[in-house]
C-alpha cells in the first residue's frame, strides 16, 4: 500500500488537494493530509469547509468528509514529531497541492519551519517523489528561480495548468485533468480524463 503525504497550502486551488486525496483513498493508498494555517483559511474561503478545533477533531472532520476512511491521517502543521517529519519513516511520495510560492521558496531554501516544509525536505533528502503543484500566475523571476532550484534538487514541478483537448464541460473536468496528471506522476492508474488519441 503506497503511503502519500498531501499538503494543502495557502495558494488558491484547495479543490485540487481535496480531489487528489479522494482519488488516492479510492486507489487504496494511505494518505497523510497536512494543511498550513493559511491553507486552512483558503480552504474555508473557497469550499466552506470548517476544519477547526484540535488536531484529533480536524482528523475526524476530514475522515467524515472522505467517507470515514481510516487510511487517512492528519498531523498539525506545527507537529515536527509526526512520523512524516523523519527520514526513518518517509512516505513513498509527497504532493504539495496547491503549492504557494512562499512554501516553494522556503523548501528551496531548506527551511523546515512547519511540518509541510520539513516533510518536503525529507522527501528530497530521502530521494522520494516530491510533486509541487504551483497555482500562481504570472510567475516572477524569484518564483521561477526557486522552481528551477527545486527541479534540480529532484522535485517534480507540475503547475495547475489544465489541458483542453479532452473538451472539458465543467470545472470538475478541469480539476480532474490536473489531478489525473498528478496521479500519472505517482504511477497510479485512473480514468479522470480522456487521453490524447483515445476515443
Automatic annotation (TrEMBL):
Keyword annotations from UniProtKB, A to Z: Flavoprotein, FMN, Prenyltransferase, Transferase
Pfam families per UniProt: Flavoprotein (PF02441)
Catalytic activity: dimethylallyl phosphate + FMNH2 = prenylated FMNH2 + phosphate
Binding site for FMN: 10-12, 36, 100-103, 135
Location of the Flavoprotein domain: 2-186
Residues engaged in binding dimethylallyl phosphate: 165, 181
Keyword Flavoprotein: yes
EC number(s) from the headed UniProt entry: 2.5.1.129
Keyword Flavoprotein: yes
HAMAP family xrefs: ubiX_pad (MF_01984)
Similarity-based family: Belongs to the UbiX/PAD1 family.
PANTHER family noted in UniProt: FLAVIN PRENYLTRANSFERASE, FLAVIN PRENYLTRANSFERASE PAD1, MITOCHONDRIAL
Name of the protein this chain belongs to: Flavin prenyltransferase UbiX
Organism for this UniProt entry: Desulfuromonas versatilis
